[in-house]
Specification:
alpha+beta, about 50% helix, about 10% strand
Length: about 240
Amino acid sequence: MSDPEKTLTVRSGDHGQPGLYVTLKDNTRIELTRENIEKTTSAYWADPTKIPPGVKKAVEFQRCEFCPMKEKADFCDALRPVLPLLDALDSYNSFDDATAVYKGDNKELHHLSFTSMQRVLRYISTLSLMGYCRVGRKYWKYFTGIIPVLGIEAIVNRMYLNMYWLHNGNTDAVDRVISELNSVILVTAKNQMARLRLICKNDAFLNAFALTHMITTLLYDVKDSNLLEQMERFEDGKSYA
């Protein structure tokens, strides 16, 4: 017998700001908008029961060596999108079902997805390393038009095409960006995982950051063959998803 068809009712008024709106298995709703992320960050930083003073001073908790803000006496910006989910994380498994509504900059368009906690966490880790990180944020433009809960291969394909487009077809420039991105994420993902081990008991986020690093590694590994493959897909009219 086939699984019953899933339905999801969405009212545009429920998603006022761009971001990812996640509903978990027990109907817990988490809004990953910039405003909510900043509000949660402020609450965490001010609450010593969330992040004890000793943790704040730990070597692992400091900003990366190449961060332009490394001398500032606060915590890594890449932690900001992670914090809204930390309190809820221990109640769920990475394979648990979730529903996600993604609202991009286009105010009229919503993307609905029946997905998993693992993909939600992977999106947050990507947002962390390439949307909020002071060094990694310069690569966020390559995520233009990418639905955050897509599979890894689809994300890699679209990122490559975005890079190719933004660099006007200059494959040498694309190769340089991919190599640079891979080197940066190798360091920032490792350091972020070290920070999370100090404040998070669940290893689901650690796995998510490993998956984000996998995206950049795969992008680097297939960069020489990706253009030809994607052009063939385009000519054949195949989907990138």
